[in-house]
Design goal:
The protein starts with 9 loop residues before the first helix and ends in a 7-residue tail after the last helix. Among the domains are: 9-187, no CATH class; 195-202 and 214-373, no CATH class; 731-874, Neutral Protease Domain 2 (Neutral Protease, domain 2). It is an alpha+beta fold. Helix 15 (740-755) packs across helix 16 and helix 19 (823-837) packs across helix 20. Strand 8 (349-356) and strand 9 form a beta hairpin. It contains 21 helices and 33 strands. Helices cover 39% and strands 24% of the residues. The longest helix is centred in the first third of the chain and has 40 residues, at 10-49.
Length: 874
């Protein structure tokens, strides 16, 4: 039987198909428009209100793409007229939407930027961020599910809409809107991270303009980070456009933002959602170029700039023509790329390209293709802005601001050290110190890599001040904890000195996690009084000096024995920690002189408040100390600046401390290996139960010793603490299980100092003093094993002899060892020990093996006599 259709019905069927296909086209356009608006619409609105450049660009480009894809898929679904086809087609469309949205802010913006500006064509302006990979995987799941459901519904919805009144038609196919809105809103999370720094910086600028000429409470100045825009205050009245600059690609928690003030460029730093420092871009690159031109061949790294071969050839050919301080003008900044013009002494112009990745890289410089006039030597002044001040009198201070490069704290010869320790934990901390109230409040963001060979279910932090004893009766409280941005489950133990953070899933070896912690602390006054008689004064406010040791949550060490979670000690050191890199923003009263681990790279002050940024090289912890009464004397030895901070009544002792530290640093550089940092600080500090305490790049010497700087005890304590920069910080050890490893070696190192320094105390005189002290200990029946742990001596109480055994007997062991194997083998072993275990954790066996290796002798008998046995009383 054959089926014959009436010819007069064929046009109606064709019209029906056209109608359904048009409705499918409308369905796809509506879906694409919804997804685009949900993904980039709110982001564009935020950027527009934050004075961002090309704020709607992503919406325009993304909208065109989504409309085209949606139109094609919606139309094809009705052409095929099968629900299964609609499901597959819209899943593929959803994947295309998500992929495009994930890559548009990076490769997409790089391509678009090149099309709009030929000078940036072909450059990877916005490198793809590794942090987006995981987010994209989650986004794909959401978008695929929502798009697939919408695809299944299309055929049914189009059929229902056909023949309905126009309004009802749109309402029917509009059922797709919630699905694509959900998918787009999920995808839009990618943009929030990149938009946040621009918003924060623009809000600070708006606040500065709004409060111009008014008095602002100092606490509000701190909270709004108003001081950050102080260096660019003369530009703030100009029209502005904000542009995303460089970003840390792994965790997207460190950004630079460029500001185009009507042709005059500035750059601001932002960490997470906190504004850092701002500076005119011309100044940044003028300093970089001047440094490069003055650097000796092969030492460009001293300027924290890597120079590519093409740029090296240009510097060699034209460097002399540029002079020592060439004129520099930034022409454009986008993402990781900065374009600038440099003029030589004859007015010739060169176009140069820098890249920040995160270090500065000078990629190329070429003669400018068209004559570029020199900028005016004294540009017309733009309207200034008076940053609001607090009622308290103040003296403004504007120091040059330098982008936070971690190697700023390292000597040029040691900058490559960072390449040897790529997996160091990275701390980004912002802290507000209330000096009168002896309290602090802060936020920490840190990236931790599991370098162990086992997955970790939890990670532990130490809240050391809560263990009291040598830290007095203060406290440290954690207010919130996140893991990769999500709230985390935590547990406090060991008198609240151990914080366990449960991970949502096991952290596999070689993988990273980012922690966020809010914290606050209360600092003891006068060592905590009689409640904590063991207090040293390292977390303390006395005599106007505020000392802050271990004032933040610090990661515990995971080693062969698992997590090290020992209680705080009252007789020795309590911080056993791995090396880490620190960037610390400190807000504190301007009346205070501040010293801290690492180097100060920026400072702004206004209204009685100062905002500092410090960065460190590899360091085991971060210490800071402040006083309104500190005075400073400085000197330089072997490229390291040594600062002596002292109280006014100790002026002579402050100079003596500087002299001792200078000689000690040079002696130890020669004997043990070079000190890696650009600075070393020596501090006159009120102390109890201790003559001195060491921290990375900074040492405390008890104020009681400053009262008599000619006393040998003052010299020994200062030389001892300087030596800890090699034995404790450079080469680490478990200070609770093997305290002798750093303390005995450091004590003996102070004798090495006197060996090379003529004065009232000699090497032999110091050894004789130690020997007499040890002989008295033996006669009293108090001898013990040098290698015992801190807990052993602490349990013995008054019967224990921690100092005489660990320090004195341990130092005599090294003197006997040196005599047994000779100077050459002895110091070769120490230099090799330092070079091999620098930035690592060493053990007793590591050190003893090194002496046997370098001497070629079997030394068990000597080791047994001095380290592993007791001398009975006569």
């Amino acid at each position: 039987m054959s089926l014959n259709l009436r010819p007069d019905l064929l046009p109606n069927i064709a019209a029906l198909r056209r109608d359904k296909q048009l409705l499918g086209l409308a369905y796809g356009l509506l879906a694409g428009l919804t997804y685009a608006l949900a993904t980039w619409g709110y982001d564009g609105w935020l950027l527009a209100h934050a004075s961002a450049d090309s704020s709607w660009l992503k919406l325009v480009i993304g909208g065109i793409f989504c409309l085209l894809v949606g139109a094609v898929v919606g139309w094809l679904t009705e052409v095929v007229d099968r629900s299964l086809f609609g499901l597959v087609a819209w899943i593929l469309a959803g994947m295309a939407f998500a992929w495009f949205a994930g890559h548009l802010p990076f490769e997409g913006e790089s391509i678009i930027t090149g099309l709009l500006d030929p000078s940036l064509r072909g450059l990877d302006v916005y490198p793809f961020a590794e942090n987006i990979q995981l987010r994209l995987a989650l986004i794909y799941i959401v978008v695929v599910v929502t798009s697939g459901i919408a695809g299944l519904l299309e055929t049914f919805l189009v059929e229902s809409a056909r023949g309905a009144p126009p309004l009802l038609r749109w309402l029917t196919i509009g059922v797709c809107i919630p699905f694509f809105a959900l998918g787009g809103n999920t995808t839009g999370n990618i943009n929030e991270t990149l938009t946040g720094p621009i918003q924060v910086i623009d809000q600070t600028i708006q606040f500065a303009l709004k409060t111009e000429g008014t008095q602002v409470d100092p606490q509000l100045v701190r909270e709004t980070h108003l001081l950050a825009v102080e260096p660019i205050k003369s530009l703030l009245h100009r029209p502005r456009k904000l542009i995303l600059g460089y970003y840390e690609p792994t965790y997207l928690d460190d950004f630079s933002v460029y500001i185009d003030f009507d042709g005059v460029w500035a750059v601001c730093q932002a960490t997470v959602d906190l504004i850092g420092n701002c500076q005119p871009s011309d100044q940044v690159y003028a300093e970089k170029m001047a440094c490069l031109l003055q650097a000796k061949p092969g030492t460009a790294n001293a300027c924290s700039v890597t120079v590519k071969d093409a740029a090296k050839q240009w510097l060699e050919a034209w460097g002399q023509q540029l002079g020592s301080s060439p004129q520099v003008k930034v022409r454009n900044q986008r993402g990781a790329v900065t374009l600038l013009t440099v003029w030589d002494q004859d007015g010739r112009a060169y176009d140069c390209r820098f890249r920040e990745t995160p270090d500065f890289v000078l990629e190329a410089c070429t003669p400018s293709p068209s004559p570029t006039p020199l900028p005016p030597t004294a540009p017309a002044a733009s309207p200034g802005i008076s940053i609001p001040t607090a009622p308290a009198p103040t003296q403004a201070f504007n120091a040059p601001v330098v982008p936070a490069a971690q190697d700023a704290a390292l000597l040029p010869t040691d900058k490559t050290d960072l390449l040897s320790v790529p997996d160091l934990t990275r701390y980004l901390i912002q802290v507000d110190i209330n000096y009168p109230g002896h309290t602090l409040q802060g936020q920490a963001s840190l990236v931790y890599t599991n370098t162990e060979n086992t997955p970790l279910e939890s990670v532990y932090f130490r809240l050391i001040p809560n263990g009291h004893k040598s830290y007095g009766d203060g406290s440290l409280t954690v207010t919130q904890v996140t893991v990769d941005g999500q709230p985390a489950e935590t547990q406090l133990t060991l008198s609240d000195s151990v914080l366990e953070v449960h991970l949502p899933k096991a952290l596999k070896p070689g993988t990273q996690v980012r922690f966020g912690l809010g914290f606050s602390g209360v600092v003891p006054v006068d060592f905590g009084g009689d409640k904590t008689p063991e207090g040293y004064g390292i977390y303390n406010l006395s005599n106007g000096v505020l000392a802050l040791a271990d004032w933040y949550p610090i990661l515990a060490v995971y080693d062969a024995h698992g997590w090290n979670l020992d209680p705080v000690s009252g007789i020795g050191d309590s911080v056993y920690s791995d090396m880490a890199l620190y960037t610390v923003d400190i807000t504190i009263g301007s009346e205070l002189t501040l010293a801290a681990t690492g180097v100060e790279i920026s400072r702004q002050s206004r209204g009685g408040i100062s905002h500092y940024r410090y960065v460190s090289g590899p360091a085991r912890d971060f210490f800071m100390i402040a006083s309104p009464d500190f005075q400073v004397k400085s000197g330089t030895v072997d490229g390291t600046k040594i600062n002596s901070y002292y109280l006014a009544q100790h002026s002579d002792a402050g100079q003596s401390a500087l002299d001792i530290a200078e000689r000690a640093l040079h002696t130890y550089n020669t004997r043990f290996g070079p000190y890696p940092y650009t600075e070393l600080d020596v501090i006159d500090a009120p102390m109890r139960n201790a003559s001195g305490v060491e921290f990375p790049g900074i040492i405390l010497v008890g104020g009681q010793l400053y009262d008599d700087p000619d006393n040998p005890s003052f010299m020994v304590a200062t030389a001892h603490e300087v030596a800890h920069q090699w034995w404790y910080n450079g080469v680490g050890n478990n200070v609770l299980d093997e305290p002798w490893l750093d303390e005995a070696l450091t004590t003996y190192s102070s004798a090495v100092y006197f060996e090379s320094t003529p004065g009232v105390l000699t090497y032999r005189g110091l050894l004789d003093y130690w020997q007499n002290r040890y002989n008295d200990l033996v006669r009293q029946g108090g001898d013990d094993l040098v290698t015992q742990n801190v807990m052993h001596f602490e349990k013995l109480g008054e019967k224990g002899a921690y100092g005489p055994v660990v320090y004195t007997k341990g130092a005599l062991f090294f003197a006997a060892l040196r005599e047994a194997i000779g100077d050459q083998a002895f110091f070769e072993a120490l230099r090799s020990y330092y070079a091999t275990f620098k930035y690592r954790i060493a053990t007793t066996q590591d050190l003893l093996n090194m002496f046997e290796t370098k001497s070629g002798k079997q030394l068990d008998e000597l080791y047994q006599k001095w380290l592993y046995s007791r001398q009975p009383p006569p």
